[in-house]
Amino acid sequence: MKVIYNRLKQSNSPYLLQHAENPVDWYEWRDEAFARAAAEDKPVFLSIGYATCHWCHVMAHESFADPAVAAVLNRDFVAIKVDREERPDLDDQYMTVSQLLTGSGGWPLNLFLTPNRLPFYATTYLPKTPRSGSIGFIQLLERIAAAWHEQRAQILSSCASICEDLQRLSVPLAGDLPGPALQQQAFLQLQQLYDHEAGGFGQGHKFPMPVNLQFLLRVWRRQGDQSALSMVTHTLRRMADGGIHDQLGGGFHRYTVDRFWLEPHFEKMLYDQALLAYAYLEAFQATGQHDLLAVAEAIFGYLERDLLAPGGAFFCAEDADSAGEEGQFYIWTPAQIAGVLGEEDGSMACQIWGVTAAGNFAGRNILHRPVNLDQVAGERGIPVAVLQQQMVFWQQQLLADRSRRLRPLRDEKILTEWNGLAIAALAKGYAVTGQENYLRLASQALAFLIRTMVQPDGRLMRRWYQDDLAIPALLDDYAALLWGIVELHQATLAPEYLTSACHWAGELTRLFLLPSGANSAVAVDAEQLLVTNATASDGVIPPGNALAAASFLRLAAITREESYAEIGKGILRAFAGSMTKQPAAYLGLWLTHDYLWEPAPVVSVHGAPDRDLRSWIKAAATTFSPGLVLRVDDSISAQQGALLCSGQACRADLPEEVLLQSALDELWTIK
Predict the structure, then answer these.
(1) What does the pLDDT look like over 487-517, one tens digit per residue?
(2) Residue 428 in contact with residue 278, Cβ under 8 Å?
(3) 593: which DSSP letter?
(4) Rounded CA separation 469/171 (Å)
(5) Nearest CA-CA partner of 94 in 123, 74, 54, 52
(6) What is the pTM of this model?
(7) I need a labelling partner for 540 at 20 to 30 A (CA). Which of 64, 236, 604, 610 fits?
(8) What is the pLDDT of residues 427-456, one digit of tens each?
(9) In terms of C-beta density within 10 A (0-12 exposed, 13-18 middle, 19 or more buried), how is residue 343 classed?
(10) Span 271-284, mean pLDDT?
């Protein structure tokens, strides 16, 4: 049977290509689509999703691939598909609309717009026909089409009201730089949300939210509050033991549908890997506990094995589904385990990873760690160290066997933003461990971005896929790239990275900085949306304004260029009123205050051309020192070694690396 494609066949988005065989007459987000809607006096149906989204697949199969649904859509609407990962600016704006209208959001995100792009109705996944009290999608389409012709005045009135609310939410509340007392309020709010039994925050679905944990580490470091540190280590260990963590291949799934981190939606996203690796590295710095470091190293192993692109950058994600079934790649039965490891070892492995005959997911098992290894070792009469060695061997065997299964789809587009986050994490990993491979991976990824994602006129782009470069980079792209480059500089003190960071800081300012001091989500030379959006509240990915503020303040300390400090402080002032109103909603900005509050250590080292600075960098990274900045200063003699300053006080008697480490430890014992 001949396949008939719609116009998405011409797209270069992996997600849009998934819909190229739909009978729906899809458009990409183009002026052409809205012009047709205006000419034919039809509303626009806008559907936003992404390539590895489970419920997007479900709705695509149930509705968008169905001729009956397509007939209604094609007759009464102009239909537009958007990849949220390519256009997070559109997704953020219309997700805010969904939250305004329904109190919630999610993907697929489905909206109805006027031909001039004004939204008036929003929903997420709907079944094709009514189910369990939910309206069916066809039924909704028919009601919207009727309302468009019969209740136009009410729809336009609703649009005006929604746009007023959008405008109000897009403008941050400014104020004076907030101090530690307000930070304490944010801490108290997190304490109230903390799940003392399972770790994490809230009692339902669990998202990792590394920014929460990084904030708590800073509360512990600055205030000496051991409860903050316990919340971090307890959460990180519960996550590492849970089904959200791939026990064989490393890396983390997006979130779990339960509070105990057991049952995930099985997508694996590059940004989660980067942010969680960074959080585990900071927790290792704070505690010296190597089990936390091992999780970060396993994440890096997953990135290199499964997400590394031929050119050196990293692909976006892996799907939750394989062969049309969610999680099939990851789940096991006792018989499958025994078939790989043998009966005796298989029995022990099943005990360790919670594999039972009854199963915990569709009759099979998501691997997790429900038991204490000391207990298992005692019951089996073997030393814990021997058991741990056996586990490594079992993991290798099971991973090799799993690799022969049908793999989930890999989304092979490359995004500047997510690669910037990965570069930052890998650079941090190199600084903490000295593992040259992490530096190689980070520098290769950066080289790809600079070589491939920058147009001849110097304009950075957001997305690359199969040699197609598209979409002018957004604030989040510039900010994440800048953060990654600054991290690389701090991990190496190589001058070329500092030069590059200063260049991209200038570009970010040129394209995004607003008179308010905040940065717009969209550059001045890109498509302008319904409102000029400048936000910094926390999401699963750090807000661009928070990353930018931190990078500008770090560059100020490294270069002693006051203009950088003023830009960084200006961003914080632009959102200070919003932070005062909702302290726990802006934890990413609270991390930025590391570079303003004492002790904010600046370590200057002598930088002769032939001098190896790695031992000094490693010494500085041994201690968790929020706000730490390293800089090369040729005025310091080789005999002096390093100069440690915090506030107005400096110590110059640090000729050896071990003395620097001791001085940093001592700095944090002074309250």
Answers:
(1) 999 999 999 999 999 999 999 999 999 999 9
(2) yes
(3) G
(4) 31
(5) 123
(6) 0.94
(7) 64
(8) 999 999 999 999 999 999 999 999 999 999
(9) exposed
(10) 98
